[in-house]
Amino acid sequence: MWLKSLAFIIGLFAMSTHAAVVLQYHHVSDTTPESTSLTVQQFQQHMDYLKENNFKVLPLSKIINDLRSGKKLAEKTVAITFDDGYANVLINADPILKQLQFPYTVFVAPKEISANHLNMLTWAQLKAMTDSGVEIANHSWEHLHLNRQLTDETVEQWQARIKQDIESAEAEIIKHTGHNFKYLAYPYGEYNSELQQLITSMGFVGIGQHSGALAATSDFSALPRFPASGRYANLKTLKVKLKSLAMPVTKLVNANPQLDQHSDSELAKRPQLTVTVKTKDLYKPTLNCYILGGAVAPQWINENTFTITSETDLPAGRSRYNCTAQSRTQSGYYWFSQPWINRNADGSWYEN
Question: Does the pTM of the predicted model rise above 0.85?
Answer without folding.
Answer: yes
